[in-house]
Amino acid sequence: MNSEEEFYDAETGLESDDSCEVSFKDALVFDNKQVTDGGAAQENGVWERRKTLPAEMISRNNFSVWSILKKCIGMELSKIAMPVEFNEPLSFLQRISEYMEHTHLIHKACSLPDSIDRMQMVAAFAVSAVASQWERTGKPFNPLLGETYELTREDEGYRLISEQVSHHPPVSAFHAQSLKKDFEFHGSIYPKLKFWGKSVEADPKGIMTLELLKHKEAYTWSNPMCCVHNIILGKLWIEQYGTVEIVNHSTGDKCVLNFKPCGMFGKELHKVEGHILDKNKKKRRVIYGKWTECMYSVDAKVYESYKKSDKKSGGDTKKLKQEHSCEGEEADEMPDVQETVTVIPGSALLWRIMPRPAHSAQMYNFTSFAMTLNELEPGMERLLPATDCRLRPDIRAMENGDRDTSSTEKERLEEKQRDARKERSKDEEDWSTRWFELGTNPHTGAEDWLYTGGYFERSYIDSPNIY
């Protein structure tokens, strides 16, 4: 096993109340995307994407998690060798592409003339980006240095390229663009995890940048913290918490979202609440909902009036503002929460989570979108660069239910990567990235990995065989 393998993005999920069992009679609808249960899309009227994986998920009952993690309490999990049973059959680069599952929210934002309305949709998109983590109990495979992933969805109007640009620390960069040149969405991610005995706490380092080109606007934000509970015993579940601040650098509008920790009695489990301020710092809209279900927007004055008249509101708000950490918890039992989102009259529905396939639990709790990410379409293999993670033999073997081959190939690739690093060190050579370069984000002034262009314009890529 590679002693330097990063155990990161080990984000998982939990049981929730029944998604979207709310009344929409008092709500306007911004999110009018057609929802189907595992329905397949067709590309150019010919290709129908798969609705399932080739095999059910491999068993995780034949190894001891505690024997691996007991020496890691309080440590950053950056150099811990993990067995393949911890994984799901996707690379972290493919996991990043799941941000794009709700791209229709960006398209909707592009179509709206008012900047506050656009901010609402951007906020909904930022929440939707973490929704796929719900109930996901496996970590993605760590990308090899130089690994890439290409995703083109003509039916959704975008294409994406991602690359593993650093191994220590592990950094993944991505860039998505509209096929009609309406938007660009990009960022680089350096997730840091710590193990606290029963839980893993994840700090998702990195800035997301969304540019709406037609409106000449740029939005930036960071993803919330998360805590994965019951790593050793019990049912895995996750909570997201922390403040996400979305800034429109062109207009001065700002959206502040509070991903609430579940609290002592689980009353705040999954809840997200925040507000939009215009450039004059006037509160214009209140955003509320659950990151596992749906998000709504309502006029700030209507919200305040509703809260004053609601005798059941208030009580624990001050306690919820305390800093939350996975460390030192006495119990990790998942709260038993029955209620769903209460819709305030006059609210607008911004986003609703897509229902998962009926067989999702046997397929690593994948969404319909995730089911398609490692699929090789006819003729694709000869068009992809050799660095594309669809060609990774360990991921492919796991997807096919072959645990032994997956484990063997994973070890071989890790050893190959170590040998390549030793050779570069011997020759005093630095690794050169192919599609991204380290630079400065023009909107935040912070260091960022920026796409250099050219990937989608090429007819063929002569790339190293890292597998």
What is the structure about, briefly put?
With about 475 residues, the chain is an alpha+beta fold. Helix content is about 15%, strand content about 25%.
SSE topology:
Elements (H helix, E strand, L loop, with lengths): L27 E2 L12 E2 L3 E2 L16 H5 L17 E5 H5 L7 H8 L3 H14 L10 E3 L6 E6 L4 E9 L4 E8 L4 E13 L3 E7 L2 E5 L4 E5 L3 E5 L7 E12 L5 E6 L11 E7 L5 E8 L3 E6 H10 L7 H4 L27 E5 L15 H4 L21 H7 L3 H24 L9 E5 L6 E5 L16
Parallel strand pairs: 1-19, 4-5
Antiparallel strand pairs: 2-3, 6-7, 7-8, 8-9, 9-10, 9-11, 10-13, 11-12, 12-14, 13-14, 14-15, 15-16, 16-17, 17-18, 18-19, 20-21
Walk me through what this model shows.
Keywords: Lipid transport, Lipid-binding, Transport. This is Oxysterol-binding protein. GO terms for molecular function: cholesterol binding. Belongs to the OSBP family. It contains 9 helices and 21 strands. With 467 residues, it is of the alpha+beta class. The strands form 4 sheets. Strands 9-10-13-14-12-11 form a 6-stranded antiparallel barrel. It has a two-stranded antiparallel sheet with strand order 2-3. The chain has a two-stranded parallel ribbon with strand order 4-5. The longest helix has 24 residues. The N terminus is likely disordered.
